[in-house]
Specification:
Shape: rod-shaped
Distance between the termini: 92 Å
Order of helices and strands: HHHHHEEHHEEE
Number of strands: 5
Structural class: alpha+beta
Radius of gyration: 51 Å
Strand content: 5-15%
Number of helices: 7
Length: about 220
């Protein structure tokens, strides 16, 4: 703003200077064209000479005033203002770019999270469906496998009565084999949603008595 005012002032000064020069040249022209009249006027009251001196003094004064009044500090201030404005614009642009990148990163992260959660739900749904194939795959040792959605939400494995008709030591081995088989089966279907307990295993008999379970991520036989 200061720079603009300084240039306006300079323009006015230059215009005024040109007008003085034009007026002075016109007086000189009149002197040449009408020398007698100009001389007579000058002899009578010396107006022409006085005017000439006045114009010279005025011209010198304007020159001095113009030189001393040219925008110096104002130009430096205006230059600094332009630098500050450019810096603010650059900072604003940089901040806008950073905010845009943050929004894009958040949008991408939300999409990745949503995709992950959707895939985990699909894995769990496929796992629930594939549990129906367990009896055939284990040749009747496991009579049923399901997720106990009304209780612990863990994978529940029911050993067949034929598998239970053994000694306690043999039952532990059978339960451990069933546990290992189900652990591998679960691994083929994971990952599950974070709130799912389907990767924990409960092994029971047909009456619901607990035989073995997952404890701290490992097999634990409870029949001992």
């Amino acid at each position: 703003m200061l720079d603009f005012i300084s240039y306006i002032s300079s323009a006015i000064w230059f215009v005024s200077l040109i007008l003085v020069i034009v007026y002075w040249r016109r007086c000189r022209k009149n002197k040449k064209q009408f020398p007698q009249e100009y001389k007579k006027m000058n002899q009578e009251n010396g107006n022409a000479q006085k005017l000439k001196k006045s114009l010279i003094v005025l011209l010198v004064s304007w020159v001095i005033a113009g030189i001393t009044g040219l925008p110096g500090e104002n130009r430096e201030e205006a230059k600094q203002d332009r630098i500050d404005t450019a810096q603010r614009k650059a900072e604003s642009k940089k901040k806008a770019a950073e905010n845009k990148k943050k929004q894009e990163d958040k949008k991408e992260a939300d999409l990745v999270k949503a995709t992950k959660e959707n895939n985990e739900k699909k894995h769990l749904a496929a796992y629930k469906k594939d549990l129906n194939t367990i009896p055939d795959k284990t040749k009747g040792i496991i009579s049923k496998a399901y997720i106990d959605e009304s209780g612990s939400e863990q994978t529940t494995v029911v050993l067949s009565d034929e598998a239970l008709d053994v000694s306690d030591s043999e039952l532990k081995n059978i339960a451990h084999e069933a546990y290992n088989y189900m652990s591998s089966f679960i691994s083929d279907h994971t990952p599950f949603p974070d709130d799912s307990q389907a990767d924990s295993i409960r092994i029971i008999d047909s009456s619901g008595n607990l035989i073995a379970k997952t404890s701290w991520g490992n097999f634990k036989y409870v029949g001992e």
